[in-house]
User: Fold this.
Amino acid sequence: MKVIKTIGKIILGGFAFYLGIILGSILAGVLGMAMPPMPPGVDQTNLMLYTLLGSFILAGALGFVSLRLSSSYLTRWLILAFLTWIAYGVNTYLEAAIFTSMTGPALVVMYLFASLLCAAVMAATFRGVEPVERFGGQLRSFFAGRTAAEWAWRLLLAFLAFPLAYILFGLLVKPFTYEFYVQQQMGLTAPGWGQILPVLALRSLLFLLAILPVLIVWQSSRASLFVTLGVLLFLLVGGLSMLSAIWYTPVVRIAHGLEILADSFAQAGALVYLLVQAKRSSS
Assistant:
């Protein structure tokens, strides 16, 4: 019975995310924002099914995270929604804006609604650990025990973790994918470093701001935080996008999927090691 209830909650959250995409699309149209063009030759029904499947996977991941957050419902909802929107919506727009010709600011609006609705459902149905203090007190406790100078260099390294991982693992998959970008196949484009680096810096800052609240209210071990954060980032940052990007060749989807997986766990490991104090964790 418990398993059936859990599956039901995940399905509800997945439909909430998908409904949010529809509502966000409608609002984006009202605001005059052009929707990303449909890739040529793509079956819209198949794309819809892959998007719905991704919505269920995302809902399950958010529910798992929600159970391990020590916070009130409102705080838990906002934390999950903000992380989802930044990593899945804003990040997708920023990445696609320089690497593809198939994007637009409408994505940001679409995923804002989807993130808010899905997070609201998952935070309500997967209740976290009862907090012993409010978020403000948790915030002070999180930053206690280290000097301002210690936090400065740790936050700087945490900020640099994503760009360094992105460049390293991107170079490793470049032999398998770069020609598709140079030849502008499948809507892909090849930007220069002058475009890539500023976007990387902005994405890294946004990731850090969105992930920090999770670190602050997390109530399990650092090891479980590392694994959970790595998986969640993989799904949000590009894993689910590669799942639904059925117009890409298998080589591109697999290569970038592995790249995003490595990026996500490298970033998660760096953030947990640098920012979460061992004495705060519990088993």
About this structure: The chain has one domain: 2-280. The mean pLDDT is 92. The radius of gyration is 19 Å. The CA atoms of residues 17 and 114 lie 4 Å apart.
